[in-house]
């Protein structure tokens, strides 16, 4: 059933959980190593970082998303993470973004969801769903 795609790999939840733990620890090389070379990464429409959608490959994600987060935020944390196993080797994460923008000191506390797709224990797809109004309002000086 798993080989037919009807059942997801039971390791998917722990793989995604480990990615979030690595991100929280600032271990971006481990996060990137968990991605397939052809990962397709999409930021939520309306998010400033969606200007590069889709980001293809770990290097594009690093340059287009992670580096920009570091440049824009004094701190950026993922909190209240809850993982939900889905069919077709997908994992849904519901969580919140907490951050502080460097340019204006505004705080961010936004509700988000991430839909991960995995294959052969690697991340091959990412879709972000976010409260883009909060993201935009935090960026207003």
UniProtKB/TrEMBL annotation:
**Record-annotated membrane-spanning stretches:** none
Q: Which SUPFAM superfamilies match?
A: NTF2-like
Q: Mind telling me what this protein is named? A: Ketosteroid isomerase
**Record bears the keyword Hydrolase:** no
A GO molecular function assigned to this protein is:
isomerase activity
Looking at the keywords, is Isomerase present? yes
Which species does this protein come from?
A: Christiangramia salexigens
Give the keywords, sorted. Answer: Isomerase
The UniProt entry, under Pfam families, shows: SnoaL_2
Per UniProt, residues of the SnoaL-like domain are 17-123
Query: Which InterPro entries does its entry note?
Result: NTF2-like_dom_sf, SnoaL-like
């Amino acid at each position: 059933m798993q080989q037919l795609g009807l059942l997801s790999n039971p390791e998917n939840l722990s793989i995604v959980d480990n990615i979030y733990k690595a991100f929280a620890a600032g271990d971006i090389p481990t996060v990137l190593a968990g991605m397939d070379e052809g990962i397709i990464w999409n930021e939520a429409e309306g998010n400033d970082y969606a200007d590069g959608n889709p980001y293809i490959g770990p290097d594009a994600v690093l340059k287009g998303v992670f580096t920009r987060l570091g440049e824009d935020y004094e701190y950026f944390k993922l909190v209240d993470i809850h993982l939900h196993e889905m069919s077709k080797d997908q994992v849904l994460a519901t969580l919140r973004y907490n951050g502080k923008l460097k340019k204006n000191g505004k705080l961010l506390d936004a509700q988000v969801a991430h839909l991960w797709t995995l294959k052969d224990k690697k991340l091959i797809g990412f879709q972000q769903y976010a409260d883009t109004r909060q993201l935009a309002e935090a960026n207003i000086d």
